Sequence to fold (588 residues):
Amino acid sequence: MKLHRIALSSCAIAILVLSQGCGRQGGSGSSAAQEDTLSGEISVVGSTTVQPVAERLAEAFEALHPGAVINVQGGGSSVGVTSAGESSAEIGSVSRDIAQSELDQYPSLVIHTIARDGIAIIANTDVAVSDLSLDQIRGVFSGSVMNWSQVGGPDSPIIVVSREEGSGTRDAFEELVLGEGSQMAGSAILQPSNGAILTTVAGTPASVGYLSFGYLDPSVKTISIDGVAPTPGSAAAGTYPVVRPLNLVTNGEATGLARAWIDFIYSADGQAIVAEEGYLPVN
Amino acid sequence: MSIRKAGMTRKHLSDLVMKSIFRISAFASVAIVVLIGLFILREALPAFREIGVWKLLTGTEWRPGQNLFGLLSMIAGSGLVTLGAIVLGLPLALGCGIFMAEIAPAWIRGIVKPSIELLAGIPSVIFGLFGMVVLVPLVRGIDYPGNAGFGLLSASIVLAVMILPTIASVSEVAIRSVPDEYRQGALALGSTRWETIRKVILPAARSGILSAVVLGLGRAVGETIAMIMVIGNSVMMPTAAGGDPLGIFLSRARTLTGNIAVEMNYATGLHSQALFATGVILFLLIMVINSTARALMARSMGSSR
Fold:
C-alpha cells in the first residue's frame, strides 16, 4: 500500500512538472527569441543592503528570459561570502569590501562590483554642528570625543547610534572611517536595522549615527565631511570619502545563468535600475 | 452478564488507550526540553572549547570581529533589568492580586480581571513600541550624564508591566485558596481587615505568591523583542556615570536574549557558536531560577503546615 501511494504521488508530481514546463514554453515561444536558451534557477544570498536592488534586477531579468528564475535572499554580507565560497548559492552579495581573511579562506572567489553606495553621517535635527572632519567623526564614534562642545557645538553629551556587529554597513563604516586603530564606542546605542537607526536618531536629541544613502530622509540632518555634503554627485565625483562597493561574489568565474545575469546588471538597463534604487552606477 | 462484561472490557480498553496517550504526551514534553537543550549544547560546544567557559562568563569585552566573546556585561544587563522589573512590578502586581481576591466586589473584579488577562495577551512587540515612543522620551527627561532614554530604567518599566498579569493572577489564585476559616478566625479575634491580610492570609499564601514571582522572573529573563527596542543594546557593563548608584539604571545595556536576537542574522562560525553558548547560559540561568523557586516553595509549604 505504501509503495502504491509513493508511485501515485510521484506520477502526480511528474505530470505537474511536465504540464508546467509546457505552459512556460507555450508562453515564451511567441514573444522571446527562438535562440533564448537561458533557463534554470540560481540563488543570490547575502547582504540586506543589496537585496532590494538585486530583487529588482532579478525581476527585470526574468521578464526578459521567462525560463530563468533568480531567488534573492538576505542573511547578511558574511553569509553572502560563505554561501558563495561553499557553493551553497551560485552568487553571494556583499555590501562591503571582501576581507583578506575571507579571500584566504575562499581563494577562488571572483568579485563583481555592481554598484557603489555612500554612507552618510546623520544627526538629530537639533544638532547645531553640520560639518566635521574625518578625524572628528572617528573621535565621535570611537568614544574619545564625547561632547558636542569638543567639535564646535554647544555643551551637550553626544549620543552615538550604530548598527550591530556583523552588519555590512557597520563593517564598511568601521573600515572606511574608524580604520585599524580605533573601534566603535561601547556605549553606542545599537539598532538592528537601517529603519531603526533612522527612527532612533530622528527621535533622540544630540544623537549621531550613519546610514546608507538609499535610506536618507528629511527626519534627520546629514553632516558633511570636510565641507563635502553626502550626495550622489559628490560620491560619484570621488570627493565624498565614505563610499563602499556593493559586490556580487561567485566561486570561480560566473557561468551560465549567473554570468548572463551579471552581464545584464552591467548593461545600460541594469545600471539604470541601480541608479533608480539610489545607488551609484559603476559604469 | 456477557453484555455487561463486554462493556467493562471496552471501558478498560478506553482507559488503557487514554492512559498511554497521556503518558506519551507527558514524555513528549520532557523529550522536547531535553532535545532542545542537547541541540543548543551541541551547537555551543565548539565555542565553549575554543573560548573557554570561564572567559565567556567573566569576559567584559564582546567584539566578535576581533574574536572577543565575553558575556559578563549581558549577564549583568539581564540581571539588573529583571531586578528592576521585580522591584517596580511586584508591589503593583501583588496589590492587584490582593485587591481582586480579598477586597473587590464581584462587579469590579469582573472589570479588573479581564483587563489584566487582556494585558497578558498583548504581543510583546507592542509593549516595545509603547516603550520606544512614550517611555524613552519621558526617561530622557531625567537630567543625568549620558542618559539617552534608552536603557535599563525604560526596559525595567516595560518589563514590570509585562510581568504584572502573570504575578497578579497567580497570586490572586493563591490568596483565594487560603481556607475561609483563617479569614473568619482572624476577624473573629478582632483583627482589622488589613491585619487579617497581612498577618494571616499573605503568610498562608506565601508559597503560591512565591511561585507567582518566579513565573514572573522567568518571563522577565526570557523577554526579547521589547527589550531590544528600549534598552539600547550597547555592549557595555552598566555603570552609574554620575556617581549616584541608582544612576546605573539610566545606563544602556544588552540582555542575553537580545544578544542572540540582534546578532544571529549575520553570525557565522565561532560568532554563531558563541551566540548558542549565550543560549546555553540563558537555559542554565532559567533552570537555576526554577529549581531555587521549587526549593523555596517546598520549604515554605513545609513550615506552614
Observations:
- The two ends of chain B are 50 Å apart (CA to CA).
